[in-house]
Amino acid sequence: VHVPDGFLDAPTSIATGVVAAGAVAVALRGARRELDDRTAPMAGLVAAFVFAAQMVNFPVAGGTSGHLLGGALAAVLVGPWTAVLCVSVVLMVQSLLFADGGVTALGTNITLMAAVGVAVGWFGFRAAMVILPRSLVSVPPAAAVGAFLSVPVASLVFTGLYLVGGTIEVPTGVLVASMLGWHTLIGIGEALITGLTVASIMATRPDLVRGARPVLERRELTIRRSMTASTAETEAA
Amino acid sequence: MTRTRFFIALALAAVLLAAVSGIVASRSPDGLERVADDHGITAAEKEHSADDAPLAGYGVKGVGSAGLSSGLAGVLGVGVVLLVAGGLAYAVRRKHDRAG
Predict the structure, then answer these.
(1) Are the C-beta atoms of residues A83 and A50 closer than 8 Å to each other?
(2) pTM of the complete model
(3) Pick from B16, B45, B70: which is nearest to A6 by CB?
(4) CA A191 to chain centre
(5) For the ranges A128-132, A212-216, B74-78, B93-97, which has the lowest average pLDDT?
(6) How far is CA B91 from the centre of its chain?
């Protein structure tokens, strides 16, 4: 379930609508660099997978559930700009076709899950890749780190929006604590699903995982060098 | 695994997830709903303008069984998202043949 109509007042919803439109416009330009004939089908499939995974709520604690946001997962698989487009399409279809997430709250939901979720997921992933050993094995746990961070941060941004434009007053501390508490737990689920999904794709087609490219390209260089060395040996013999 | 096979496998995974969602998904309120319920925000929720839509609430209108209804709606949704996102990706992609 996403932010419905009525939680945030009109000015806040309009502001997030402008932010969302800007994010999608910038993503449309950025995604050109990420997408070609080889990777375009992957974008459609990743969006479809995120949509399906979001339907499967998992229990967290105390009669509360969570579902995947998918920003980190999509960013690691298809690149951050394409991921913004993928998650935005998911949110639009959910709102317009399935009445999940208000139509006037679409800008809010795109801002939170497509823009903030992808940005935090992607930068969290990149930061973890810098710290972890530079190896393909590091890609799934790094994706899980980005995924974990993306959920509580997105929930904090919602809390900020609610404190500015919420329609029913809730004490700041109470709202921050409960949003952050539940969404930190949901972040663990997000991390597990993201880590496992990325791991299974890495096991079959690591070349189709955008976030693995810097490591793969470096590995290819190593292979070429050893090939050159063996060629040189053959020639010398 | 060939690329085509991999894509088919990923598509099947999405379809399967959506198909079983009605049976396996937790029915408890999610994080946002829980917070909204606990702190009286739910009262502010307005009726969704698409609440009467044939697929509103992840169910197919007229299908009695809750599991089947949700599964069907999910599979339809997977198809729509695949077409829209895939079509968008094709539209914005780099076209190699144009460069030459």
Answers:
(1) no
(2) 0.92
(3) B45
(4) 11
(5) B93-97
(6) 22
Q: A57's torsion region: left (phi>0), alpha (psi -120 to 50) or beta? A: beta
What pLDDT, in 10s, does the model give residues A54-90? 999 999 998 999 999 999 999 999 999 999 999 999 9
Q: What is the mean pLDDT of chain A?
A: 93
Number of residues in chain A: 237
ipTM > 0.90, yes or no: yes
| Minimal CA separation from A48 to chain B, in Å | 5
Q: Is B18 within 8 Å of A93 when comparing Cβ atoms?
A: no
Question: Is A97 in the B-facing interface, judged by CB distances under 8 Å?
Answer: yes
Burial group, residue B38, by CB count within 10 angstroms (0-12, 13-18, 19+): middle
Give the integer Cα–Cα distance in Å for A87 and A91.
6
Angle between helices A139-165 and A71-78 (to 10 degrees): 130
Q: What is the DSSP string of A72-95?
A: HHHHHHH-HHHHHHHHHHHHHHHH
> Taking CA atoms, what residue in A is nearest to B55?
A98
- For chain B, the maximum distance between any two Cα atoms, rounded to a whole number of angstroms, is 61
Residue A223: how many other CB atoms lie within 10 Å: 9
Question: Residues A192, A197, A203, A207: what is their CA dihedral angle, to the nearest 10 degrees?
Answer: -130
Cross-strand bridge partners of residue A64: A61
Residues 6+ apart with CB under 8 A from A162: A7, A8, A170, A175, B41
Q: How far is the C-alpha of A48 from the C-alpha of A36, rounded, in Å?
A: 19
> Are B57 and A28 within 8 A, CB to CB?
no
